[in-house]
């Protein structure tokens, strides 16, 4: 059995930020348990080659944007970590495809206010930089938590690696940095969570879980030469919403959200889906769009550490935040949800991960965890 004062289950943005916030408060006796082989969670940023040899020319297969105009806590963290940001390109007209019988039409574009911002190096720059501030020996990947037991003095967790080897952890506090629905569906809590709390977690849809993205990478943003912003909307598909994903002084790209339902995508081979997406880009942006130098499809519904069966047919909107902790019973005061969906202010957003994690860490102060750590 191994011991730690705090166990953080999940090494996505909320888990990494929680560890960072704990360290800033002098708490270093923590462990981060991540089921995936690499940290980052739903933040995945890859270079055009798909080989991780660059930290600047990268594209976001997960969340892409934030809005410093009103997500100020996240923006403070980004500034504190000395990350650089830039505005989403929106200059020019957009293309709209209303039906199969009518060609795509050019129409006046629009600009978001406040502007959507992206990070140099992709959102992965945020999680990568947080990791650099942490003790790497306390971030354990390939460790899936399936069982959690309340004991007289704390909590026992079982984490299982890819070979089936189980490690038992004895901790005082658990911060759940994974979506509420996923936690409720995949972790066996003993004793069971309060009925109402478990129900609310199960009913909270996981943001991005039903979604899929398609990226087409090009040498130059040729659409800009035509006075187009790269924005597109379609009632035909398979892409329903398209954006310019080009990187300043880097590769050019268009990306779109695939509107085909997750249950249907499971029956379509990826090469066929790519072909349909390319054909749509040609219809909307011309023949140059049919020859990308690289393509990527990321289907989050196929990610077992993101989506559950309930997410495949659920709504794709941001869900209201459920309660992050039990208000009574044996789990009261020792188990707190800190993933983005638990943020009252920005549930499901990148900013929500920082907000929920910060609230979870502040909650530990009410249980004297910081006092104990410095004695």
Structure description:
This protein is α/β, with parallel strands linked by helices and 375 residues long. Helix content is 25%, strand content 25%. It is built from eleven helices and 19 strands. The chain has helices spanning 13-24, 72-80, 124-132, 180-186, 195-202, 222-225, 262-265, 270-285, 309-312, 350-365, 369-373; strands at residues 2-9, 30-33, 45-46, 59-60, 85-87, 93-97, 105-107, 117-119, 139-140, 144-150, 155-160, 166-176, 188-190, 212-218, 228-234, 239-244, 252-258, 294-299, 335-337. Strands 1, 2, 9, 10, 11, 12, 13 and 19 form an eight-stranded mixed sheet that branches. Helix 1 (13-24) runs parallel beside helix 3 (124-132) and helix 4 (180-186) crosses helix 5. 45% of the residues are buried. Residues 371-375 have low confidence and may be disordered.
Order of helices and strands: EHEEEHEEEEHEEEEHEHEHEEEHHEHEHH
Our count of helices gives 11
Can you count the beta strands?
19
Rg of Cα set: 22 Å
Task: List segments where confidence is low: pLDDT < 50 over at least 5 consecutive residues.
Answer: 371-375
Please give the share of residues in helix. Answer: 25-40%
- Dominant shape: elongated
End-to-end C-alpha gap:
24 Å
Overall pLDDT level: 93
Strand-residue proportion: 25-35%
Q: Please describe the biggest sheet, giving its number of strands, its sense, and whether it closes into a barrel.
A: 8 strands, mixed
**Estimated structural class:** alpha/beta
């Amino acid at each position: 059995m191994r011991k730690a004062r705090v166990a953080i289950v999940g090494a996505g943005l909320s888990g990494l930020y929680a560890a960072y916030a704990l360290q800033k408060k002098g708490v270093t006796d923590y462990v981060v348990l991540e089921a995936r082989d690499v940290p980052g969670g739903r933040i995945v940023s890859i270079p055009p080659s798909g080989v991780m040899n660059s930290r600047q020319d990268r594209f976001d297969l997960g969340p892409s944007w934030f809005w410093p105009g009103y997500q100020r806590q996240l923006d403070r963290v980004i500034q504190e970590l000395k990350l650089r940001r830039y505005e989403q390109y929106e200059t020019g007209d957009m293309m709209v495809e209303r039906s199969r019988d009518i060609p795509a039409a050019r129409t006046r574009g629009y600009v978001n206010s406040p502007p959507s911002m992206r990070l140099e190096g992709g959102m992965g720059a945020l999680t990568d930089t947080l990791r650099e501030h942490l003790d790497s020996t306390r971030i354990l990947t390939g460790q899936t938590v399936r069982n959690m037991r309340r004991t007289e003095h704390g909590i026992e967790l079982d984490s299982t690696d890819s070979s089936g080897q189980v490690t038992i952890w004895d901790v005082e506090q658990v911060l759940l940095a994974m979506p509420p629905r996923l936690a409720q569906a995949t972790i066996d809590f003993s004793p069971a969570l309060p009925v109402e709390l478990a129900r609310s977690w199960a009913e909270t849809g996981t943001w991005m879980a039903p979604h899929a993205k398609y990226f087409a990478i090009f040498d130059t943003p040729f659409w800009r030469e035509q006075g187009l912003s790269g924005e597109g909307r379609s009632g035909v598909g398979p892409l329903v919403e398209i954006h310019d994903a080009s990187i300043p002084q880097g590769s050019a790209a268009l990306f779109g959200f695939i509107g085909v339902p997750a249950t249907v995508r499971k029956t379509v081979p990826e090469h066929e889906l790519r072909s349909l997406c390319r054909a749509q880009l040609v219809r909307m942006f011309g023949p140059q769009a049919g020859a990308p130098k690289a393509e990527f499809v990321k289907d989050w519904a196929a990610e077992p550490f993101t989506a559950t069966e309930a997410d495949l047919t659920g709504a794709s909107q941001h869900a209201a935040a459920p309660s992050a902790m039990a208000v009574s019973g044996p789990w009261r005061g020792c188990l707190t949800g800190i993933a983005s969906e638990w943020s009252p202010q920005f549930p499901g957003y990148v900013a929500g991960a920082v907000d929920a994690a910060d609230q979870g860490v502040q909650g530990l102060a009410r249980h004297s965890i910081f006092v104990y750590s410095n004695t």
